[in-house]
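Input record (one chain):
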Amino acid sequence: MDINLLTVDSIRTAVLERRTTASATVDAFYQKIEAEDAAIGAYLTLCKERAYQQARWVDAMVGRGDTLPPLAGVPIAVKDVLTTKGVRTTAGSKILANFIAPYDATVVTRLEAAGAILLGKTNCDEFAMGSSNENSGFHPVHNPHDHSRVPGGSSGGSAAAVAAGMALASLGSDTGGSIRQPAAFCGVVGLMPTYGRVSRYGLIAFASSLDHVGPFGKTVKDVALMLQSMAGRDPLDSTSADVAVPDYLAQLEGPVKGLRVGVPQEYFGEGLDPEVRAAVEAGIQELAKAGCEVVPISLPHTGYAIPTYYVVATAEASANLARYDGVRYGMRAEGKTLSEMYCRTRDAGFGTEVKRRIMLGTYALSAGYYDAYYLKAQRVRSLLARDFDQAFAAVDVIVTPTTPTPAFKLGEKADDPLAMYLADIFTVTADLVGIPGISIPCGKSQEGLPIGMQILGKHFDEPTLLRVAHAAEHALAAKLA
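The corresponding structure, as predicted from the sequence alone:
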């Protein structure tokens, strides 16, 4: 069995037909992780006991002739911002370096109930704050396509694990592009569902009105299968939507002829790498050949997205991270007074980028500045939402580059926060307005680095989004071979 050829769809069939066992598959993946992850750094924690217990459960079902659940035997990895009972959950931060979560995130519970096997927890930028995975409190992740380059962030470990064949699928979180951007850099598929489509219960919060949980996979079908088991109302998360979950697979291979594809002029301007532009435009042409109508559109407030995002996100981060004070959980640095203990704990436990964002957010929320910054940012957020509402009145999906450049070198932007923030310039808008988005591979640079094409859809219209992505994936297959 060549695990490099497996997909989420094929492994269940292989286990069902007894061409392999779930336990043997887990063996093979752990062997690959042991052989290759030292050079990549995708994993922070492996949970072998849990994985083999789940594998034995799947194998026992096969032995009894039971009907297998939809993800039976699928080895997955989970970004270390999602809690896993009895398994270390760090959020990529030293302040939680030894934290053992007392409960599972809802998405983990649902995926394991569907038969998925959790191999381990993946590395990420600390508290999901970053675009390169260099902000991890432990070590950076290296891009599997070129170890001198970043995998993207903040879900770089999850994207790298799938790209390197060290998991068949994985989970990430997306607050400003943290699923789609690393998917583009690593040459895999990354899906951010509509805000509220997937439960956030058990997700360590960065910015609560922006955080999404979503899957990575090798193919669009892989992420559709993952989403099918993850999605749906969760009474433990008041922000999860009580919206029916459609059958994504039933619509995946439907025709795209006649669908209107919007192409916003604001996403193809200054700063876009010529190779990225050419690859994405080629992808758009493939959709046109498949019968889609390409429609030029405008999203006029796009230029305000980055400043708006970095006010809203940092303000919410400031509030969410106040809980890490050394009192209830996580590390504690001793001090002579309570105030000194707080200060020493947070100074030692948080990295530079997290401290920067807490300070920015605290300032934006402070007396005298709330109206000037946070309130104004929320008003601009409404203008961005209006742009998309008007665009989606005329088109079914919107296609853009996922990132302005291919993966950059490790350390290249580490000392320039603004340049790092601009790596998410094409992705933050979807988080601000809560729509779904997906990144699929659409080409490679002359240096062999993956290039991603982003497709955005209407609220809760993942079926159309996935159908267009699936059609584009198949149309581009020959170019990517």
